Amino acid sequence: MVDAVEMQLVGVRVELPTNQPIVLLREREGERFLPIWIGPVEATAIAFALQGIVTQRPMTHDLLKSVLEEVGVTIERIVITELRETTFYATLEMARDGAQYSVSSRPSDAIALAGIVIHDEDEETEVQKFREFIESVSPEDFGANPF
Question: What is the bridge-based pairing of β-strands 7-15 and 20-27?
Answer without folding.
Answer: antiparallel
